[in-house]
Amino acid sequence: MKKRFVFFMIGALLILGACGGNSEASGSSESETVTIGYFPNLNHAPAMVAKQKEMYEDHLGENVNVEYQTFPDGSTFMKALATGEIQGGLVGPGPAMNNFISGVDVQIIGASSTGGTVIVSRDGSGIESWEDIEGKTFISPRVGCTHDVQFETYMKEKGITSERIGGSMTHVTGEPARYQSMFENGDIDVATAPEPWASVMEAEVDANVVIPTSDVSFGETLPAAVMVTSDDMIENNSEQVQKLVDAHKEAVQYINENPDVAIDITIEGIADITDQQLEKNVMESAWERTDFTYEVDADVIQEFGNSSYDLQFLKEKPNFEGFVNTSFIQ
C-alpha cells in the first residue's frame, strides 16, 4: 500500500523551498510557477519541442510562469517531483515505478515515446552477440533504471545475469553522454544506450549493435519515457494537469507531422544541456529507432514491473493499481 504520509511529511518540510507552487487556486489572478522536468535524451524530445514552441505557455495561460529543469537520471527527477521542486515532466518508467512502490505519490498520465534502447559493444571488445557478453562490464544510467531492466531481462532469458544476483556480468553506472569517452578509454565493454547516444557511438567510436531496439526486452512496447505528475496536482489542480497533457499531446503530434524540424529542435536542446552538438545524420538514425506517442498501456507497465521484481530490483511483486491514469489523454 502506498505510504501517502511520506509525501505529506516531505512536502510539509520542504514546501517553502520549492521552486514552483501549485497551492494557489486555478482561478487565481496572481502569477504562479509550474516547472517541467526532462532529460537530454531523444525520447524526451516532446519536452524540448514544447519548450521551443512555447506550447506549455500557450496552454497554461499568461498567469502561469513556465520553467524547465533538466536531470541526469530518474532518481534525481523523482526526488524533485516528491518535494514539489517540479510539478511534472518526462522520466523513464523504471524510476517512476520504483518511487510509486516506495510510497511516493506519482501517477503516469501519458507516454512520450517507445523504442530507442540499443545495446552496443565497444569496438575491439570481441563482443559481437549476446553470447559474448558473459563476464563483461556493462553500463546503464542507474541501477534498476528502464534501460538496465530491459537489458538484464533479455540477458536473464538467455541464462546470463549480473554479479548483483549471482551472475558474471559487472555493472557500472554513468550518464549516457559520457559513454563515448568510456568506450574510448576501454573502461566498459557494453552500454545500454538510450538514443541518440547509441547512434553517436556507432558514428564516433565504431560501436557495434549487439541487441537492437526490436529485440531487446520491451523494446517496442514499453514507453521509453512517460509523463508523470503528483497525486497532489491531480487531486487539487486537475484543470492545470489537463492543460499540461494537452500541451504534451500537441508536441507529440507536431513531432510526427514535422520530423525534420523536430530533429533540429532536439539537436539544439541536447546541445544546450550537454554541450555536445550532434550531427543531423546521427540524429536521423536514432529517430528511426524511436516512435513518439502519448498513449500508454497499463498492462505493459505491469509486465515491466514484474520483470523488475524477477531481477530482484524490487523486494515485492508490484501492484500498480492507481499508477497509470489515462483520463487526461482521452
From TrEMBL:
It comes from Lentibacillus halodurans. Keywords: Cell inner membrane, Cell membrane, Membrane, Signal, Transport. Belongs to the bacterial solute-binding protein SsuA/TauA family. InterPro entries: ABC_SsuA_sub-bd (IPR010067), NrtA/CpmA_ABC-bd_dom (IPR044527). The lineage of its organism: Bacteria, Bacillati, Bacillota, Bacilli, Bacillales. It is found in: Cell inner membrane; Periplasm. This is NitT/TauT family transport system substrate-binding protein. Residues 1-20 form the signal peptide. The keyword Glycoprotein does not apply. The keyword Chaperone does not apply. GO terms for molecular function: ATPase-coupled transmembrane transporter activity. GO terms for cellular component: periplasmic space; plasma membrane.
